[in-house]
Amino acid sequence: MKVRVYVTLKKGVLDPQGKAIHHALEGLGFAGVNDVRAGKLIELDVDVGTSDGDVEEMCRKLLANTVIENYRIERAETAA
Amino acid sequence: MRSAVIVFPGSNCDRDMAEALRLVSGRAPEMVWHRESELPAGLDLIAIPGGFSYGDYLRSGAMAAQSPVMRAVGEAAARGVPVLGVCNGFQVLTEARLLPGALMRNSGIRFVGRDVAVTVENSQSAFTARYEAGEEIVIPVAHHDGNFQADAETLDRLEGEGRVAFRYVGDVNGSARGIAGILNPAGNVLGMMPHPERAVEAAHGLADGRRLFEGLLETVGQPA
Predict the structure, then answer these.
(1) How far is residue B16's CA from residue B86's CA, in Å, rounded to a whole number?
(2) Superfamily for B3-219?
(3) Has B195 been annotated as catalytic?
(4) Who among B59, B109, B147 is closest to A65 (CB)?
């Protein structure tokens, strides 16, 4: 079973990489980009019996640093 | 002084750290591989060196924080054994939650490698005993992820409890309140981005880091 974990910086946390990407997009002539935030997508292939709680724990213990990052878990069934 | 240097795959300042400890204390440290689940007995100091442990995969220090040896380091820290984390070692200590906050990408995006001036904010710890409070010293930095961030409440607590050990003179990497190094509540765990082990002898051109090791030798070291 596939699970996707999206790790993003918390609101208000400065994102130097996002800022650099934003700047580069402007340099390429793309107007109208108001903000860019960069994050990570981590795809897990887990046993069917793996609970939401198990994945939550993986996020809290390793996949995200909850001091600065939020995470969102998406199961493959619900993935587009 | 009986010390140990923790070595992870990708550590690259471990030998500099070992040499600084040997030079100042007269005794070479034990080099402890990250897979060890126990530390040598009777340590007076544990040093976590700089480098790029596990290639900085996921986040700087994140993988190293989960390695077997860090459980033992956490237990030793709880018993009061001094733990010094430099650069990547600081990142490992925050990821292991032995210190608060996080070290993010430098605000200017670029890797910063140069000598920087820092002020000694707290001269009461075992690590800073040989410095004067408010003294300005020069120590090299070399990092990409040295931008210390924590929520305002945590920052206020660090300041209020005298746990900011070193502060940059001027902006180096975007760190909140210019923080370059912090202590845990008990004062026996120090994380700092500048590299004191790269400023201990004449050949380095700088020697302000030497007193950090001398202070440790005086306060926690036992006769070799």
Answers:
(1) 11
(2) Class I glutamine amidotransferase (GATase) domain (3.40.50.880)
(3) yes
(4) B59
